[in-house]
Amino acid sequence: MSVDAAWARRWIELAAAEVATQRDYLVDLDRAIGDGDHGENMDRGFSAAVEALRLAEAGSVADVLKTVAKALMSTVGGAAGPLYGTAFLRASKAALSLSSSDGALDGAGVAAVIAGALDGIQARGKATTGEKTMVDAWSPALNAARAAAEADGDAAAVLEAAACAAEAGAQATEPLRATKGRASYLGERSIGHLDPGAVSTSLILRAAAVAASRGGEAQA
Ligand code: ADP
Ligand code: MG
């Protein structure tokens, strides 16, 4: 099974709903080691992305991801806005160069989209793994996605592997000391808390997997 533009739209709608539901949780996480705005930022950004998609033409996976990137960049603010904006922009570019003639992505295509997202985040934020940022969710997600794609996993299997790895990666940020972003100002005191951006990444990638498992019946 592959994923198409309808999947990408379902993904962003589910991500927006999940971010809205978890808004206060993300706020609490960011209050502990940041300034407490991450839940609000993400909720505003994903609501704007859903609204932008409602107004946009159907398009391809790449078109959907580009619309999302623009909406996030112009509404999220903080550190996360440019980071997620660049992630979705690079993901869109990857989707454009890899998709089949009907615009759909197979397992390897999905892994390439996740690689594009991580590339964008690292180009912007210069963080590597272990610095207690969203990279600690995206990077294991990419490794798991590549492994699943190499094992001939279809798009849904690759997304499921990525979501599970992102969740584990987010949980694994708890004992880390932040060395990038606002949380790094706390030094040792950042230890013992989950990174808000890693947690929001895990919510977003879980939404991508759910969107594939729910709509896959209708796709090739
Ligand atoms: P701000 O820190 O400006 O208030 P947010 O609260 O919206 O922005 O986002 C904070 C999240 O951004 C962090 O939890 C972390 O995951 C992510 N982040 C911050 N700096 C970087 C960076 N340099 N690279 C990757 N992610 C980062
Ligand atoms: Mg913040």
From TrEMBL:
The keyword Cytoplasm does not apply. Keywords: Kinase, Transferase. One of its GO terms (molecular function) is glycerone kinase activity. The keyword Signal does not apply. One of its GO terms (biological process) is glycerol catabolic process. GO terms for cellular component: cytosol. Pfam families: Dak2 (PF02734). Residues 6-210 form the DhaL domain. InterPro entries: DhaK_L_YcgS, DhaL_dom, DhaL_dom_sf, Dihydroxyacetone_Kinase. This is Dihydroxyacetone kinase subunit L. It comes from Schaalia meyeri.
